[in-house]
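User: I'm writing a short report section on ligand binding and want a predicted complex to refer to. Could you take this sequence and guanosine-5'-monophosphate and write out the structure as tokens? A short remark afterwards would be nice.
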Amino acid sequence: MTKAQISELKAVLSTPKNIVIVPHRNPDGDAMGSTLGLYHYLKLHEHNAVVIAPNDYPDFLKWLPGDDTVLKFEAQQDESEALINKADLIFTLDFNAFHRAGHDMAEILATASATKIMIDHHQQPDDYAAYMYSDVKMSSTCEMVYNFIEMLNDSDKINENIATCLYVGIMTDTGSFRFPATTSRTHQVIGNLIDKGADNSQIHNNIYDTNSYSRLQLLGRAMQNLKVIPELKTAYMTLSQAELDEFNFKKGDTEGFVNYALSLKGIIFAAIFIESKQDHIIKISLRSKGEFSVNEFSRAHFGGGGHTNAAGGKSEDDMKTTIHKFISILPNYKQDLS
Ligand code: 5GP
Ligand code: MN
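Assistant: Sure. The structure tokens for the complex follow:
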């Protein structure tokens, strides 16, 4: 975003507007943290702002300040559509293409007359936004929302609610400040957010220490299913729908499981394959260490994308066929994986 564009936006935002803020489908900590953080900021300026999530999200995010104001497109379609159609501005946060908001919502976003503003750190963004703040080097969209508020010369307006929301997304997208996109600047932003009232220890508790017994049992099953291909530095696991049902699966329960596979000594590529009978797909999460790009891997073979070291994808084949495909592709990457 250029300086001129920032000035333009500052002028646009100087009088109250109807604003819709949208995270990606199946929102994670960064998606909900960034949208609600921006929501609290826009509220300070008397805008008529609302966060519309494409669908529901895990319970461990439902304590975020402002959570009770969030609309879910899937469940509140008419109300959501009306708000999108009368919006002056639509902020799309933490995603890079309309389809990431889900099929139905994508169409409505694409045809809405509002001025669109993208704030996002995913690779290869689509070109739909009049104002585009895209930076794939950023740790998180939450860090970018912080920068955005700073660019608008409003850092001093960051309050406890904004700080808490932004802290959540920086924390979750950096694996608690350990992934390579974490910079000294990330830590400086986090320090400022703590100064503005983010209760760091409580936030960690709220996000990570709310396991149910059944989730830990499901994690146990995923670990039992772990397979290692040492010669290709790859590890993967599977969870079938039957296994999810056995352990009373709830949205968000498998979040982070794939990282255990990546934590194995010597492993640089990890995957988890999770069956969804409802969506008729196998949902795939991919993680890597170093140069190997799971974004490219997912784009090439599993219809997804994301970042160099974290991406998602899907398969419409059954589990057995999907795993077979995965294993047979791997040797093509022998150079990168050994
Ligand atoms: P996860 O494995 O946690 O679902 O996703 C990992 C990262 O990749 C997240 O940043 C997520 O937003 C992104 N991602 C997941 N699925 C897709 C996809 O289908 N397309 C793109 N472009 N990004 C994805
Ligand atoms: Mn993100």
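A remark for your report: The chain has two domains: 3-208, 213-337. The mean pLDDT is 98.
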